[in-house]
Amino acid sequence: MALHQVAGCDDLATCPGVFIEGDDVVVQGYQISTDTRAQLTLAADETAVRLPRQLILDAAARLTEGV
Asked: CB count, 10 Å around CB of 58?
């Protein structure tokens, strides 16, 4: 299934983004530091990324609109 961009800049090679794929939301973000990662309990198949707060707010607004 193809990704559909919901929020983020046009050049996703240099900035985070939020996408939908079917009923799922996919995020692309910045790598987190080792110190930050150590504070999380991640399953073997999980990862964590850092996203700007405004990107989440923009994505939530678009998803609420039914994009």
From this structure: 15
Q: Could you tell me if 18 and 9 are in contact, meaning their C-beta atoms sit under 8 angstroms apart?
A: no
Distance CA(44)–CA(59), nearest Å, equals: 27
CB atoms within 10 A of CB 59: 23
> Please, are residues 7 and 59 in contact by the beta-carbon 8 Å criterion?
yes
Task: Give the span between the Cα atoms of 32 and 44, in whole angstroms.
Answer: 16
What is the Cα–Cα distance from 5 to 56, expressed in whole angstroms? 13
Which own/partner contact pairs does 33-40 have at CB distance under 8 Å and 24+ positions apart? none
Query: What would the pLDDT profile of 17-57 be if each residue is shown by its tens digit?
Result: 999 999 999 999 999 999 999 999 999 999 999 999 999 99
pTM: 0.83
